[in-house]
Amino acid sequence: MNGTAVLQARGLGRKYGRRWALRDCTLDLPAGHVVGLVGPNGAGKTTLLKLAAGWLAPSSGGISVLGGSPAGGPAQLAKIGFVAQDTPVYPGLTVADHLRLGARLNPGWDAALARERIARLDLDPAHRAGKLSGGQRAQLALTLGLAKRPRLLLLDEPVAALDPLARREFLQTLMEAVAELDLSVVLSSHLVSDLERTCDHLIVLVDSRLQVAGEVDDLLATHHRLTGPRRDPGRLPAGQDVVSAHHTDRQSTIIVRTDTPILDPA
């Protein structure tokens, strides 16, 4: 695979028993972007992130991250930061304990960055993580991911359990860190509203398959929602590629992809 992309997948799939959690995924993510990974629960978002982090091995196809295999050894793993779902921290350890642990586990650890972020967030180093609020735990987990100084940071629904204020503060500090550290980021969520102000590239997974991938501006220009009386999507004009269709007894809502002006005959 071409080593210039931050992440490339070709026919990538992961199977659990007889069930495909992700299948036939082919995509290219250029470096330097904040990529939103969206889709309903169970769509395959976490599976894709764990494959990218080297936590899982593919059942089919292949994946390249930063020009190498995700689990290609300590040097490769050091390039990738991962904040798992529910922003896991150790409840019995203090904030300072987490920073010391991070320093021992990561050869590229940036102690000054970690200390500065903890001070800026007004987190008491002596407080145990179990006594922190949900937003503070999320910020601590993000600090650990950033102080590793990865080239690619993977975030698996880090704000899903946070209240709106904590969610906004988390995303704001993430964007500040991206600007300061020149990171590439993949941020997953099942809520598009979490990503609309932070991401410039979008991946959409539905039913374990890649449906849409590209620059947000390009996708907005070429994807349209048609809502009206119930109809057969096959009757749409040529050149309108149906991405998804949902129907009630009387109404159809269809997402189409087209580079030409929308023609929507009755």
Automatic annotation (TrEMBL):
GO molecular function: ATP binding; ATP hydrolysis activity
Keyword Electron transport annotated: no
UniProt-recorded name of the protein: ABC transporter ATP-binding protein
Listed PANTHER family: ABC TRANSPORTER ATP-BINDING PROTEIN ALBC-RELATED
Keyword Transport tagged: yes
CDD domains noted in UniProt: ABC_DR_subfamily_A (cd03230)
Domain of life the protein comes from: Bacteria
Domain ABC transporter: 7-232
Keywords from the named record: ATP-binding, Nucleotide-binding, Transport
